[in-house]
Amino acid sequence: MKKLILLTISAFTIVVAAQTVDRRAFDPVPDKVVGAINGSAPSDAIVLFDGSNMDAWITAETEEAARWEIDGDAMTVRRGMSTIKTKQAFGDIQLHLEFRPTAVIEGEGQSRGNSGVFLHSLFEVQILDSWENPTYVNGQAGSVYLQYPPLVNAAQEPGEWQSYDIIFKAPVYDGRGNLSEPAYLTVLHNGVLVQNHVELKGATYTPMPEYGMRCVPYSQEREQDCSGKMPITLQDHGQVVSYRNIWVREL
After folding, report:
1. How far apart are CA 82 and CA 99, in angstroms?
2. Is the Cα torsion angle 9, 10, 12, 16 positive or negative in sign?
3. What is the pLDDT along the chain (251 residues), one digit of tens a residue?
4. Domain 46-250 indexed as CATH 2.60.120.560
């Protein structure tokens, strides 16, 4: 009788153990997405610029039609054309864009190919010609402006196309307007990891980093509620920079 009890307990243990280690899941089935192939956007992406028009963009300050130049598959900003923003607002996103600082070198430091992409219209990933162009490290290409220098300098030569792939986690506020979760950012520059899930300390363009449910987004004058979705902004910093193949996936 004792042997029978031991065998029963042993079998029960084996069954429980098998159930514990079998962690396979069959539901929900992930959606089918065709990825970015040969420069095309993923099948579930929102295309913000493909070379055909600037319908997805407006001037940030006035909200009039964007005035950047379109040539071939690229759009180019020159001094005085104004910062632009997307008509659509976004929260958590995957963003891809390609940019090209001009090959004509007329300055140095922050005066060479300077532009920027602002996530949530608040947090800048710096765009700069950082090929053999010394400047403060948290202001070079691939930096979170004035907060984090890039892990490495992955810049191409002036006049060469470059890419950013960005994963952005938007800040979260509670019902009383208090910050409950900060923003986070991951950036690949030309396929190289340069920002690894860094915690953003606040808006990058203010004298000191700051969070606020109500804020004045970059290149805009009126205060607004920044606790929800916000546009993506591309900066006119007075230098010649071109962009192409811009798309975003909402996460």
Report:
1. 17
2. positive
3. 555 444 455 555 554 455 578 999 999 989 888 887 877 899 899 999 999 999 999 999 999 999 999 999 999 999 999 999 999 999 999 999 999 999 998 889 999 999 999 999 999 999 999 999 999 999 999 999 999 999 999 999 999 999 999 999 999 999 888 999 999 999 999 999 999 999 999 999 999 999 999 999 999 999 999 999 999 999 999 999 999 999 999 99
4. yes
Helix (H) or strand (E) holding 37: none
Residue from 170, 30, 117 nearest 128 by CA: 117
Residue with tokens 């986690």: 169
CB 87 within 8 A of CB 226: no
Spell out the domain ranges in the chain. Answer: 46-250
Contact, 247 vs 48, CB < 8 A?
Answer: yes
The number of angstroms, rounded, from the C-alpha of 178 to the middle of its chain's C-alpha atoms is 24
CA 176 to chain CA centroid, Å, is 27
The whole-model pTM stands at: 0.90
What's the chain's length in residues?
Answer: 251
